[in-house]
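Data card: per-record layout.
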Amino acid sequence: METKRAPAIQHLSGKSTLPIVEVFYEFNQLKALYRQGWLRVGIPKTQCETVAEHTLGVTLLALFLADEYFPALDKGKLLRMGLLHDFGEIYAGDIVPGKMSLADKHELEKQSVERVFLRLPKGRDYLAIWQEFEEGKTAEARFMKEIDRLEMGLQASVYEHEKLGDLSVFFESTDKALSTPGLRKILDALLALRN
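The structure for this 195-residue chain is written out next.
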């Protein structure tokens, strides 16, 4: 996996500290881990978003769009889900589609989140929220899955406007993932910007 720097957790090797300090050093990895799919299509590292930047985008979109399209959803759960949904990538890395089976990817990410979350007093609650997102069965999880993909489409639009290449494959992937009419309207606006 391509990263900006070595994992911060290495600095705690052989040291004893509080679990919250360890977890901070671990999730610091998401600030350094490039989104591998962008690198794969030639986005330069100097402009490539990190997983943490993507997480922020997903969480903000959920905050801004939930009230408009799904006012009945649990907003607190959406925000927790947005913030936690990529924690599996701390140790598993940002695995791009086609590199391994979805079951193997899920298992690696589950091991990662268990390793991180279970040191925290509310770790089982965080693990349950992460698992709920992964399963995609609740209204909140389905919404967040769409938001996760919509954020990718929005980022693809930014990159195309910065003349970093034809990112049609990312728009196609976003198109396949969106079923909510309001979110599809946003995608349509992005596609109109491409012309």
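Known properties of this structure: Residues 16-194 form a domain with the Hypothetical protein af1432 fold (CATH 1.10.3210.10). The chain has eleven helices and no strands.

See the next section for split statistics.
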